[in-house]
Amino acid sequence: MQIKRKRVQAVPDRQDDILSLKKSSQALEIWGRLVRNKTAMVGLIILVVLILTAIFADYIAPYGYDDQVLDDNFIPPCAEHIFGTDNFGRDIFSRVVYGSRISLQVGLISMGFAVIVGCIVGSIAGYYSGVVDNIIMRIVDIMLAIPSILLAISIAAALGPGLRNVMIAIGIGSVPQFSRIVRASILTVKEQEYIEASRATGASDLRIIVSHILPNCIAPIIVQTTLGVGNAILNAAGLSFIGLGVQPPIPEWGAMLSAARQYIRDYWWMLTFPGLAIMLTVFALNVLGDGLRDALDPRLKS
Amino acid sequence: MYKFILKRLIMMIPVLLGVVFIIFSMMYLTPGSPEDMILGENATEEDKQQLREELGLDEPFLVQFGTYIFDIVTKGDFGTSYTNGRPVTEEILQRFPTTALLAALSMLVALCIGIPLGILAATKQYSIFDHFATTVSLFGISVPNFWLGMMLIIVFSVHLGILPPSGFYGAEYWILPAITVGSGAAANIMRTTRSTMLEVIRQDYIRCIRAKGQTEGKTIWGHALRNALIPIITVVGIQCGVLLGGTVLVETVFAIPGLGKLMVDSIKAKNYPMVQGGVLFIALVFCVINLLVDLLYAYIDPRIKSQYQAKKRPK
């Protein structure tokens, strides 16, 4: 009796080991392909530095983001203020450093929202097809008929300015693209035999979607999310630039550009550094997104 | 073919109705009442009530929505501006030519840069030029266009003093805004052109054309490019929407009196009929562009044309 129990336990253990080994080797293979892509690694390094900057902003920034020294306004870049100071005598470097928190927050939260809602909507449309699919996809078509920045502007105009509303506006504006991508991936997976097998064993629709279909559609979702975070940061900066986004004195990069606009003739540094920060961040996310696409699906690489 | 166009035009109607519904609902749910914005906060309750009745704001949501749609369809009337009392349609039509010109010039810049660079990068794959062009295009899609516009103003207007920093009165005023709006589209078009050309120039028929002794120029521009055009046109269509959206911010940077600036000013003034009308108008233009893109497919690729025509035949 004792021996039998041991044997019964031993088999699933070994299967788990094999499965985890296979999973980790697949992840390692993808990682290996990503590491070989030099541009993607540059993107990843920039992104890691940026995330560390956001986390340790309190230690990196030499001044507070709202420390005003009115006598020290408009100081050009120098040893004490490497990015110079603005019209209120605030250190621009410190504001750019703290600004990384806001931009990453906007990018990650709004895309998190878009991914969750997009996955739910896209899964329902793709899995159930028929009338439900038709209704959902027509709504998505309607939303895609409005250029994304305009949709975000309209939502932000309706909700009013503020960090939370910017995230909602950009999140909602990105849902249609995600729904489309998830739906398309689900359509390719749902007719596979293993889905039929799991249905035959009596798995519920929710279980089939969550445990079997979505994990197999994860590659395009990861790539789109990476590129989407970059786009969200760009759009958030745009919204703040026209006064619909984050309000002063919060050091959002777009809002800093908006405030610097009136000093364009004399104080170039006020405009240059926040813009460079946006560009570098979005660049890093774009090259990483491209690299991930190649690493996750080597067939796509020409 | 005409039947296909008609069918697509009919299909546009529910999409546009949906756009109107979404935008109308958003503006309806916006906090802050229009009568406060028109009359000011010190107005008496009677005045406000009278204005509400005049504007039909005391009606239920669906009645207001129905009236709005009815006015658009029958009279082309998008409502009245809260700030100056002028019809929204009139203001939009007055401003739109400027935005259309800016978008067209930007697209021209994007095509002139994107397609040749994409082709060169593909034909010289892995060369220094290819790496350079690919990196520049990556920066092109990462740069916020309103920031690029301001940096161009600093360099070309403030320091070099060779181009005007604002306004839209003649050719020299068009250069900076067109480059600003067009740069992102140029980068996207370049990337697509490069990847599609790389696929096409490896096909057997290109090898065959080369073997027959055709010159490299004619092989690439006459045969390969034409077969690579479908994905390029798709991207150009998508970029038209992005361009129209991009003009909203860039018109603010260069103080260009177009539809985009009108909308930003209207948002600041909470002039919602104007915002609503502007978004709807741009969505309408975008839908028409998408239809034109579909028709262009048929013009370029006879296989797609025959598909469109096949739908005409009775089954």
Structural account:
Chain A is mainly α and 302 residues long. Chain A has a single domain (46-296), classed as MetI-like fold, CATH 1.10.3720. Helix content of chain A is 75%, strand content 0%. Chain A has helices spanning 2-36, 38-55, 57-60, 92-128, 130-144, 148-159, 163-189, 193-200, 205-213, 218-241, 253-260, 268-296. The N and C termini of chain A lie far apart (59 Å). Chain B is an all-alpha fold and 315 residues long. Chain B folds into two domains: 2-75; 96-312, Orthogonal Bundle (MetI-like fold). Chain B has helices at 2-29, 34-39, 45-55, 61-75, 88-123, 128-142, 145-159, 171-200, 204-211, 216-253, 259-268, 272-300, 302-310. In chain B, α1 (2-29) runs antiparallel to α12 and α7 (145-159) packs across α8 (171-200). The longest helix of chain B has 38 residues, at 216-253. The two termini of chain B are 17 Å apart. The chains are: A mainly alpha (302), B mainly alpha (315).
Helix-strand layout with pairing:
The complex is a heterodimer of chains A (302) and B (315).
Chain A: H1 2-36, H2 38-55, H3 57-60, H4 92-128, H5 130-144, H6 148-159, H7 163-189, H8 193-200, H9 205-213, H10 218-241, H11 253-260, H12 268-296
Chain B: H1 2-29, H2 34-39, H3 45-55, H4 61-75, H5 88-123, H6 128-142, H7 145-159, H8 171-200, H9 204-211, H10 216-253, H11 259-268, H12 272-300, H13 302-310
Helix pairs in contact in B: 1-12, 5-6, 5-8, 5-10, 6-8, 7-8, 7-10, 8-10, 10-11, 10-12, 11-12, 12-13
